[in-house]
Amino acid sequence: MLIERNALLEFKAGLKDPTNRLSSWVGDDCCTWEGVACDNRTGHVVKLDLRNPHPFSVIDDNKWCLGGELRPSLLGLKHLNYLDLSMNNFGGLRIPEFVGSFRQLRYLNLSTAGLGGLIPPQLGNLSSLQYLDLYNDLGPVREFIIDNALWISHLSSLQYLHMGNVNFGEGAHWLQALNMLPSIVEVHFSLCDIKAIPVSLPHVNFTSLSVLDLSKNFINSTMPGWLFNISSLEHLDLSNNIFRVIIPPAIKNLASLNFLELTGNPFLEGKIPAALGGLCKLQHFGLAGINISKNLHEFDEVFSGCIKNSLETLVMSNSQVSGYLSDQLGDFRMLKALYLSDNSISGPIPASIGRLSALQELDLSNNKLNGTIPGSLGRLAELVFLDLSSNFLEGVVFEEHFANFSKLNYLDLSDNQLILNLTSDWIPPFQLQLLNIGSCKLGPQFPAWLQTQENISYLDLSGNGISGILPDWFSRSFSQHIYYLNISSNGITGPLPNFYSSAMHLLDLSNNSFSGVIHPNIGRSMPKLIYLSLSANNLSGEIPLSLCQPDFWSLDLSKNHLLGELPNCWNYSFIIGINVMDFSSNSLSGSIPPSICSLPYLESLHLSNNNLSGELPLSLKSCVSLHTLDLGQNGFLGQIPTWIGESLLSLHILRLRSNKLVGNIPPNLSRLSALHILDLANNNLSGTIPSSFGNFTAMKVIQESHASILSYYMYNENMEVTIKGTGMEYSIFLSLVIIMDLSDNNLSGTMPEELTSLLGLLSLNLSGNHLIGEITEKISALQQLESLDLSRNNLYGGIPSSMIALTFLSHLNLSYNNLSGRVPSGNQFQTFIDPSIYAGNPGLCGFPLAQKCKDDETNQGPNVVGGDEEGSEIEWLYISMGLGFAVGLWAVFGPLLFNRKWREAYFRYIDQVYDMVYVALAVTFNRFKEHNVAA
């Protein structure tokens, strides 16, 4: 016993114990020490359990974690059969080889212990081991690696094996090792970087296997046939892999299967076999994220089997399923969870859904469902989770729909066309934690029944048609525990509510009619606030300094009447720092404070439409993470600094329009490879357009799918973009907008031909400058161009006929230049019927101008564009037509002119024809008149 006591004390001496968890390790009786257990008969130490009792400290500050070294003195515990060091942090230390010397060890748990490196094959000496857990989720620095797993085959007594997040090498032979463990019952090989799996095995030895988890790997193959020979299998998780061919008919062999998860295999294809319906014990079936692209009626054959009497969870979200929900849905009496979100399911929700008496979770969100919510839904008394958001549901929702929902805590009806007819004195039977009824018609009165919901932590009442002043109880009721509050896009008036919430993370009061000043302590009263939007209200006063204190991710105070200067206090955001700062469309004055760019993660800065002045400060050079810089419509002076093209290399949007900037445009702006919106319009810039502007990488690419400009997922970047002479607000599709606007400056020289390599341009505006030269024929390369404005310059020459190839062009302005020649016709030019777009070019002619070209004085329609040769051919065609007409006319009327008898005979014939026609018409008219009289 003394040997074991000393071994433990020596082991403790190598450990780091910041919270003194092992303070009880004193005295002679080590069997009473924390984490130590002894055999009642022999008194020997048989168990050492040093698992972290506070596991979340591993990802927080590690204060409860043991660390240090693992000394071999532990070998003094000769009778040890249980060792647990999990949920600690040993800083990437390798598993000591001496652990393989504990021959009596039956339980070994080293999961999430901060260990790493190559797993020693000496662990294969633990022939008595029944439980081995090496799961590791502490990142690549502390990653377990296994290059050859054959040592696992020596663990002949092993029943439980968890090696999740262990990196298996290419030749690890893990399946061969597994196949030599006849007693293995449960195997977890999730996140093991397994790229291949043998499709067949000569013989399956692990016939006791009950649980197999191969999820979250890179397995790229068809489903292996040997899987379906393990008749003992109850739990099979193959999710998030690259399996191909969906499920073979041999699935019928897995008669004991109760859990089947295939979610997240994007290349699975083929028909789900009818044999699946014969799995009478299957309780969970997951197919989310699989492009099965099937109509729901094709599952009727599968779901008509005995599976409908056992299935408890069905997950088919994001699987491109279409069709209608069948009345057969009500036959799944055991169903507890149904997830069909993010598909293309249409039609109404069937009334049979009310027969699913065991249903606890129902998610039909983001489909194409229409019609009303059936009243039978209200019979689902066990329902806890209900999400019908983002469909086309309409009609009225009454209190009766919720009458039996006593267990409901999650309700999302947002983004439909529903009317909630709920009386002000209604007392709901539920206590919700989440309520999202955004875009539902609820107002104009604020819902008084919300006062009964004491547990709400997520509340979205946006776009509900609510008006008037918030009731006094509102801020009191939701101050302590709510973390998400969105009451935007209503007509709420009065002062801003005073929230004193230690839990609030997101607060959106935008697009209302709140007035007054922002409370000076707003930041300090909500220390965890990361998203604040007070945009589009009637707020006045100055920006409170308290907003500099918390670590906001997004701060939007735009479209108000705020005054004063921007606070110079942003260096206090030291943990995370602001990602988005939008103070646009106010009445702010002064300069940009230097502390703004002490925010290391600032990606979006909107200060447009204010009264800011001064030169662009050098401090902006430090905003190296900026994706959007919008300083338009202010009074900024000086030149565009060259450091923008040197330091702000992440910029997607640069908007400096409507300021007082002067000087040349820096050519090195073209180094901004991600830039797709460049707006320098309405300044006093001079010099030439840099030829390097043809090198904007992002403008050369045709954008086909939109993606967020910012890494901050909670915020959709939005701003006004001037296209086709009009300012338009873009948000979700802003990343698809590719424009260059240099209009209304003092730029000179020619239009660089290099601009025609910007194949993704949607809008090009160079108007209101002093550009000279001809419009290049290569402009036809800009096939995506929708708007082109070259007006109010000194361009000369003809309009290139190649421009008719710009088939997307819908806005064109070439007015007030010195252009001459014929206006092209064909394609989009046929639709440009407004002559003002060519005004101020006296040398232009042809449709739609009143001035005709010299070669088609009689032409009344659009002109045909052609070369000299083509024009001369048309002239000869007209001449020959005229000669032919003259000869034909002379051949008929010449003899009548010189021969009297022919002339008299001709006119007698004309008189006879006239008499015949007159008589015929008179007879017909009289008959018609007599018929009407008789009638």
UniProtKB/TrEMBL annotation:
Membrane topology: Single-pass type I membrane protein
Subcellular location: Cell membrane
Pfam families in alphabetical order: LRR_1, LRR_14, LRR_8, LRRNT_2
Leucine-rich repeat-containing N-terminal plant-type domain boundaries: 4-39
Protein name (database record): Receptor-like protein EIX2
Organism: Phoenix dactylifera (Date palm)
Membrane-spanning ranges: 876-898
Entry-linked Gene3D superfamilies: Ribonuclease Inhibitor (3.80.10.10)
Main location, first listed in the record: membrane
SUPFAM superfamilies per record: L domain-like (SSF52058)
Keyword Signal: yes
